[in-house]
């Protein structure tokens, strides 16, 4: 029987108890430009973990199909898993698309920074996770286009970072949905080249084409705000001899050049904020650079232990004493990902589960980078070697676990950052298959655990994995 309040139901303000497809709203979680997010449970399966339910404010909003398509193709430890999609039908009969995703119990990156007052090493580790996520998207020729600290959630119990809100994202084959010259996004995070394009555009039909460098610049803005509490500003452009808009300098927060910001962190922020997009590092180059800078800072301060609660590792449950059991599903999953693996797996229980007030100063980035190079002697060397792809393994992690180590002969992504199989994942410069399972099961197929998932190395063609103990398993026939 319809309730008395149903005629006034609005997708942006659904009360607890409202059914949305197979889900029931439990509570309000947030509001974005395109929709509202609710905490919800599956009807009849309330014992299962909750989901994040994003409901479109506009009926038949086409942006949701684009977001759904990208999430469906995304399999990454720092992107929420897509659980389901559908439509919520309003009392008037309007169909509002919804997306159900993995629920992330966390806080935004900026709130995490305010609450925990993280060290520079901890900030670098979180930023490395963010860069790793951008690397994954860019390898698919996808862009987020609204990358910012408010769209990054840090999970409470293990400090894993998640990139949220793909409503402004775009991927190959997606239709253009907005008529504006600039793509959707948050102005404070727009790149200089986007702003300069809008100034030089001769007519309203010209549209700026975002590139991976735009996401990297937004990551630099995010890092600057996390480190200083202040935003960089664009400065005042000038006209060159051909009448084109030119920007010579950004207005950077003075706090960025104070002792408040460690030199390796400052140098990487400056590189991400470089005015010329071709001079910015790629996300793939940033991942190992951020990790090495964090390692260097942590090694230089061994007397200051990092908080146990902020580490990304998990506590291991005792190993099972039961005999080996057959897990053919693991082999099937491995085969589907283009991997080879053995079916005999040892059973094992799963793992137990201050804001500165600083003025800004207009400083040419070329000058600030030179100053940063002078100040980063020693520690700064870890941040300046961007082209190297593999971070130093084995060091203690403040927030993230060590990335899986590459094996000899392991498949590498192509020039576009793509692996041989569409469901394989690029991590640490190599191609991997991501499987679910315990640590014992993972080791049985020569995989490595990272962020509570098993990553199995991929080898090109029909080449088998080099024997590690004289007992290599043959590939499946």
TrEMBL record:
CDD domains per UniProt = STKc_PknB_like
Q: Which Pfam families match?
A: Pkinase
Keyword annotations of the record:
ATP-binding, Kinase, Nucleotide-binding, Serine/threonine-protein kinase, Transferase
- Top-level enzyme category: transferase
List, for all copies, the residue spans of the domain called Protein kinase. 23-290
The EC number on file is: 2.7.11.1
**GO molecular-function terms, A-Z:** ATP binding; protein serine/threonine kinase activity
Swiss-Prot/TrEMBL catalytic activity? L-seryl-[protein] + ATP = O-phospho-L-seryl-[protein] + ADP + H(+); L-threonyl-[protein] + ATP = O-phospho-L-threonyl-[protein] + ADP + H(+)
Region annotation (Disordered) ranges: 297-320, 384-421
Protein name according to UniProt: non-specific serine/threonine protein kinase
């Amino acid at each position: 029987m319809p309730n008395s309040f149903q005629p006034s139901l609005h997708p942006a303000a659904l009360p607890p108890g409202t059914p949305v497809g197979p889900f029931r709203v439990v509570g309000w979680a947030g509001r974005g430009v395109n929709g509202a997010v609710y905490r919800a449970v599956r009807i009849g399966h309330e014992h299962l973990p909750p989901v994040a339910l994003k409901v479109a404010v506009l009926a038949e909003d086409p942006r949701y199909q684009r977001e759904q398509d990208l999430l469906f193709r995304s399999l990454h430890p720092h992107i929420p898993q897509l659980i389901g999609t559908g439509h919520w039908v309003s009392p008037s009969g309007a169909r509002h698309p919804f997306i159900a995703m993995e629920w992330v119990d966390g806080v935004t990156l900026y709130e995490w920074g305010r609450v925990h007052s993280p060290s520079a090493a901890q900030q670098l580790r979180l930023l490395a996770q963010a860069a790793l996520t951008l690397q994954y998207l860019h390898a698919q020729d996808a862009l987020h286009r609204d990358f910012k600290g408010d769209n990054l959630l840090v999970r409470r119990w293990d400090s894993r970072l998640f990139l949220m809100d793909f409503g402004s994202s775009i991927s190959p084959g997606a239709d253009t949905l907005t008529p504006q010259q600039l793509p959707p996004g948050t102005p404070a995070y727009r790149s200089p080249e986007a702003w300069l394009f809008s100034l030089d555009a001769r007519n309203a039909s010209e549209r700026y084409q975002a590139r991976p460098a735009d996401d990297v610049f937004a990551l630099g803005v995010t890092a600057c705000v996390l480190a200083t509490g202040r935003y960089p500003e664009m400065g005042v452009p000038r006209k060159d001899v051909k009448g084109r808009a030119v920007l010579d300098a950004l207005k950077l927060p003075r706090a960025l050049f104070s002792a408040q910001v460690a030199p390796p962190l400052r140098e990487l922020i400056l590189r991400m904020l470089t005015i010329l997009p071709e001079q910015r590092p790629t996300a793939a180059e940033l991942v190992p650079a951020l990790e090495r800078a964090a390692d260097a800072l942590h090694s230089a301060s061994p007397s200051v232990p990092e908080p146990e609660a902020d580490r990304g590792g998990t506590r291991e449950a005792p190993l099972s004493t039961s005999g080996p059991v057959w897990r053919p599903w693991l082999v099937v999953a491995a085969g589907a990902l283009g991997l080879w693996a053995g079916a005999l797996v040892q059973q094992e229980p799963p793992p137990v589960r201050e804001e500165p007030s600083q003025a800004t100063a207009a400083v040419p980035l070329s000058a600030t980078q030179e100053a940063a190079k002078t100040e980063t002697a020693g520690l700064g060397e870890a941040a300046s070697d961007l082209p190297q792809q593999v971070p130093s393994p084995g060091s203690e992690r403040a927030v993230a676990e060590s990335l899986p180590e590459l094996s000899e002969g392991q498949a590498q992504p192509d020039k576009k950052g793509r692996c041989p199989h569409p469901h394989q994942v690029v991590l640490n410069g190599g191609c991997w298959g991501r499987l679910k399972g315990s640590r014992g099961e993972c080791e049985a197929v020569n995989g490595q655990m990272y962020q509570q998932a098993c990553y199995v190395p991929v080898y090109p063609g029909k080449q088998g994995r080099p024997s590690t103990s004289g007992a290599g398993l043959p590939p499946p026939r």
